[in-house]
Amino acid sequence: MQSQAYCVYNQRSESFLCLGVFPAITRFARLKGLIGRLRLRLDQGLWTIPSKGVHTIGVLFPIDLVYLDGEQKVVDIIEHFPVFRIAPLRKQAVSVLQLPIHTIYSSNTQIGDQLLICEVEEMDKQLNQESKAQTPVAQSIIQTYAEMS
């Protein structure tokens, strides 16, 4: 995976989906995807851009898929997508998040949710600008991740 990681935050459920999603923006990176990895850590993921669908041919573990439109709004979700399969194409999707299993469930992500995807420093600014108060859990996670970086 590439070196620049992003945080993914669900604005409706006020929960993080991932603290270290890496973009796959080159043709080779999109084709390779998660092939060759033995697993995904709970804080890792792959953001395939552009993409209307992905595959798990050669991937050794199931994943959760979150399809996004151009404004990072969730247009479809697939929980526990199995290995050695081709995911359905979604015409309205512009990118796909490939995340560890149970991410969709644990973050309570649903179709129509607005996601915020940005670097940790930018995430801190964005969350502090929101009109509603930031939850103590969100503050703790952002601070922990910032200290790790």
Question: Can you give a write-up of this model?
Answer:
With 149 residues, the protein is α+β, with helices and mostly antiparallel strands. It has one domain: Jelly Rolls, CATH 2.60.120. The chain has a seven-stranded mixed beta sheet with strand order 5-4-6-3-2-1-7. The protein is globular, with a radius of gyration of 15 Å. The chain has four helices and seven strands. The protein has helices at 27-32, 103-107, 120-129, 136-148; strands at residues 6-10, 15-24, 45-48, 63-68, 74-81, 95-100, 115-118. Helix 3 (120-129) runs antiparallel to helix 4 (136-148). The model has no long low-confidence stretch (mean pLDDT 85).
**How large is the share of residues in beta strands?**
25-35%
Query: What structural class is derived from the secondary structure elements?
Result: alpha+beta
Number of strands: 7
Residue-averaged pLDDT: 85
State the helicity in percent bands. 10-25%
* CATH third-level topology: Jelly Rolls
> Rg, please?
15 Å
Strand order of the largest sheet: 5-4-6-3-2-1-7
**How many domains make up the coordinates?**
1
Q: What is the assembly state of the chains in this entry?
A: single chain
CATH superfamily: Protein of unknown function DUF192
Task: Extract low-pLDDT stretches.
Answer: none
Largest sheet: 7 strands, mixed
CATH level 1 name: Mainly Beta
Q: Please trace the helix and strand order, writing H or E for each element.
A: EEHEEEEHEHH
Number of helices: 4
User: Which word captures the global form?
Assistant: globular
CATH architecture: Sandwich
Give the N-terminus to C-terminus distance in angstroms.
16 Å
